[in-house]
Amino acid sequence: MNQPTPTSTVATAESLLAIDIGTINTRVALFDVVEGAYRFIAAGSAPTTVYAPYRNVTEGFNLAIDNLQQLTGRQLMGSDAQLIIPSHPDGSGVDRCVCTLSAGGPLRVIAVGLLEDVSLQSVQNLIATTYAQVVGSISLNDQKITSQRLDSIIRLQPDMIVIAGGTDGGASHSVAELLEAVGLACYLLPKEQRPEILFAGNQALLEPVKAELAPLASFQGAPNIRPSLEAEQLLPAHKILSDAFRKAKIRRLDGLQILDAQTGGFLMPGAAAFARTIRFIGKDLEHKRRGVLGIDLGAGSTVLAASFGGDQYLDVRATLGMGAGLPALLKQTSLANITRWLDVEVAPAVLQDYIYNKSLFPASLPVTTEELAFELAIACEILRVAIAKARWTPPARLVGAVHGFLPPFESIMVTGSTFAQANSNPRLMLTLLNAIQPVGWTTFVLDQNQLAGMLGAAAEVAPLLTVQGLRDASSFVNLGMVIAPVGRANPGDPVIRVQIKYSDGSETENEIKYGTIDMIHLPPGQTATVKLQPLHGFDIGMGLPGRGGTMKNVSGSEMGLVVDARGRSLGLPEDGFARRELLKKWLSMLAS
Amino acid sequence: MEASIRHIIPITTIARDRVLPKAGRVIVRKGQKVAPADVVAESIVAPAHILLDIARGLGVPADQVGQYMQRRSGEQVEADDIIAGPVGVGKRVVRAPKAGKVIITDSEQVLLETQGRPFELRAGYSGVITDLVPDRGVRIETTGALVQGVWGNGRMDAGVLTVLASRPDEPLTSDRLDISMRGAVVLGGIITSTDVFSMAAEVPLRGILAASMPAEFLPVASKCAVPIILLEGFGQIPLNTAAYKLLSTSERREAMVVADTWNPYTGARPEVVIALPTAGDQAYPIDSVSFRAGQTVRVVRSPQRGAVGLIHKLLPGKVFLASGLSAVCAEIRLENGENVVLPLANLEVLV
What we know:
The complex is a heterodimer. By secondary structure, chain A is α/β, with parallel strands linked by helices. Chain A contains 16 helices and 22 strands. In chain A, a hairpin with a 3-residue loop joins strand 1 and strand 2. In chain A, helix 8 (270-284) crosses helix 14, helix 13 (425-436) crosses helix 16 and helix 14 packs antiparallel against helix 15. The longest helix of chain B has 8 residues, at 195-202. Helix content of chain B is 9%, strand content 43%. Chain B is built from five helices and 30 strands.
C-alpha cells in the first residue's frame, strides 16, 4: 500500500471520473481542473443494478452517467455507449477513471490457520479489512479430520479461502495437513464454483502450496501475515486481498469487467479506497502525533479506518449496515440499546417492526421526523457496536491519549447517506458524540457529498486531486471541534474552563458543568485561540489529569466549539422518561 | 428514475425457473403439464466423504499401495467391499465403511463419496414445462393472477383459497381456523397471535396469506410447516386495496403459494398465483419501468405505508420532506382522496 506522493502542487489538465458502485446507489463524480487546482464539479446517481431484473452493474452506471451529463451539460459517453477517454478538445469525455465497489454483498470466506488464537485470528483480522464474511474456519484446534473439513468446504461453497499458518521458517507439515482438504475441495467443486485462494502463511511453503493449488483454482500468494508469534502484519496481504476481492467480484457481477477495464484495472473495494483517504489525512496531520478516524456507514456495511502516523487500521463490518441486513444488528445488540438513543417514546416492538420493514425497502427514505430519529438512533448503535469491536492498537505516546478510552483523534470524518442526509447539525453532532464518545479534543468532519472513498481511489492515478479535493470545504464540512474532558464529578460541578480569544479581538470565558453539553460559537471564517483549563482533576489529554493547554488558530465551523462534559463512558438514566428528557435537553443545548 | 415494481396482476403469464441446488436429473419433458406437488427434477445433495489411508490400513509403504488396489476412480462400492488388499499372511484388507463411489485414488489414500440424501424439486406451480435446463431444472409457465408479497417462510404448497378477511385490516386469529379449512389457503388481514401458526399446522392449512404481523413473531412463523406470505410487511399494516380486491374475489380458486424469501439478486419474491382458465396468450409481467404520471403505486413507508394511489405528477428537482431530507418526489393522489408528496424511493409501481 505504497502511497503515491504528489510531486507538484499544480494540477495537470486532467479530468477524472470517479465511480462508486454502492449497495443502494451507483454514483459518478466528475473532477476537473479549475484555475490550476482540482475541483469537484458534480455528481450523478442512479440505483445500483447488480440486482434483478438487470443483474448487470453497467445499467446503473449508464443511468448515473446520464444524470451527470444532464447536470453538467458535458458529454461523457460516446455514441458507442463507452466512456469517452481521454477527453476531447470540445470538452467531452474525461482523462481518467477510477472505480470503487461495495455492492454485491460480502464475500463468503473460509479462514484457514494453524492455531485458533494465533494465525487463525490473524486470518480473521485480514478478512475484516474488506467486504467479507467468515462463514467457516479450519484449524488444528477444530478437532476435525480431513474429510470433515472437505465436506465443510463443499457445503459452504465459499467465494474465497484465506490461508495462513506457520511463522516464516516455522511449521510446514501441519499447514500441509490443513491444505489437504482445501485441495480436495477445489478438485471436487465444479470449476465455476471454485473459490479464490489466498495464501499468506509460512513463506517457505508458498511455492509448494502454489504448485499444489494454482492448477485447481485462482491462487494468490502474499507475505506472511504472522511472520512471528508476536508480530502481525496485515498491510501487504491486504493489498493482495483487495485484488482477490476485485477478481472474485468480477467473476460474479456481470458488467463489472467492463468498468474495471475502463479504469485500467483500478477497481478497488470502497473500504480500501476510504482507508487510503484517511491515510492521506493522517500523513497531512502526522506532525500532530495524533490519529485520524474515518467512519463510513453504508447500507451494507460499516467501515472504520484509522491512521496513527505510519500505522494503519481498517475494519470492515461487512454485515452491519443500514440496509437489507439491518436485522442482523439485533444479533449484536438489543432493542433497548437502540431505543436508549431516542428522545421520543417508542415501544421496542415498534422499532423492531421498523427495522424489519426498512430491511425490505432499504432504498426508502424517512419522511417524518420520527423516522429520521429512528434512523439516527440505529446509526448511533451501529457505530457503538463497530467501535466496541475495534481492535486498534495505537502506538504509545500519542498526544492526547487518555488511558482506557477511545484513542486520541485529531479529526474524525464521517460519511454515508445517513449522515449526509441528516440535515440537522445539532442532531447529527449529538448522534456522533453519543456513538463515538471521543475524549480530549477532536474535530468532526462531514463528507457531505460522499466523496472520501472516490478521492482515495483517485490517489492511485492523481494523488494531487486527493490532496486538493480534501481541502474542499463545501464537500468536507467542519461540523465542529469537540472538547471532551474525562473524570468524575457531581452533576453541576464545573469541570472545565474555556477561554476564547477571537481573531476580531473579543474574548469569552465559560465554565462548563458536569453532565452538560455546551456550544460556544466560533463561526466559519473566524479563528480563535482557545485556552482550556480542566477543573477537579479532569483529563483532556494534555498529559496529566488537571493539566490544561492553549490551542492557537482554531478554525471556526458550523457548530463552533462543542464541550461535551457529560463524562466517559456516557451514562444514561435507566428511567425512560428521564432519559428522553435528558436527550432533549442535550439536543436543545446543541441547538441553542 | 427506474421504479421498484410489485406485481399485482389480475391475469398474466408467469414463467418461473425451478432449479436444483446441485446438478442432478430432470425427470419431466418439455411440453408436459405439471401440478404444484409434482417432482420435476431430483438430485443427491450433501454427500459425505471418507478419506481412507490405504498404506496405513494395509501396513505397507506408500509406494507399494498401487499393487494392492482393487478399485479405481469412478467405481461404485457397497459397504464392506474390499478397496485394497489382501496383504500378507494375515490377509489385511481395507474395506469400504459405507456404500459410495470411489472419487480419487492416489499413492496412499482413497477418497470415497458416500451416498447423500435425495432431493426432490417440486414444480410449485401448475403449468406447462416450456424449457429444460440440462441436469439442473425447468422453466414452468402458467396463466393466472399474480400477487407478490414482501416476506415468506421459505415453503410452498397449493390449495383452494378461502377468504377470512372481510376487510383489509381484519385480524387473523386462531379461532377463525377450523377443520373445514383442511387443505385450504387462507387470506387474512393482520396476524395478531402466534397461535395462528400452530393452529394452521394442526388443521392443516396449505398456506396463509396475510397483510402483516409483528416482527417478533418471525422465529415462530419461520418454523411453521405451513407456507406463510406477508403481503405488506411487519407491524399492523392493512392489506393494500389492489391485492385485497384481487384475492378476495378469487375465493374457491386454486392458489399456488410460493413463500420464497426475497432475494434481490435473483428477483425471487414470495408470491401467490391464482390459477385461471384463459383464452389466448397473456402478456408476461413487465420487469422494469420508469416512473411516470398515471401509474398506480403503493407506498412502502410511513406515514402512508400500504396506501395505493396514482402518480399525479413527477416534481422537478428535489423536494424537502418533513424529516428535513430532500429527495426526488412525486405528487400522489391516494385512493382516499388525499394528495401527498412522497419520495420516489418510497413507491412501488403496481404492474
